[in-house]
Amino acid sequence: MEIFGMILIGIGAAFLLIGSIGIYRMPDVYNRIQAGTKCTTLGSFLTIIGVGVVQPEWFWKTLIIAIFVLVSNPVSSHALGRASRKKRISLYEKSVVDKTDEFTGQQK
Description:
Blueprint: H1 2-25, H2 29-54, H3 59-86
């Protein structure tokens, strides 16, 4: 089981690295939020569960923490995106689709 836990930790760390590269490479705040949220949610989840597998006495605690990450990370990124939109932070100029009204933030 320890090898399986280490594999989960390694995969989680790889996702966290990919997410950090995505945050660095994306052109605007909305793309950065999307890149960061997807990778950090899965990366954190796998890393935390991997620690629980390596240390079986911690498993239930790490499972509770992982579930909290699965719930809170997407909600917080949605709040950041909505606040950015309300502050009228513009999209990247090469963005093709914008389904919100520029001034109200409501969908068209």
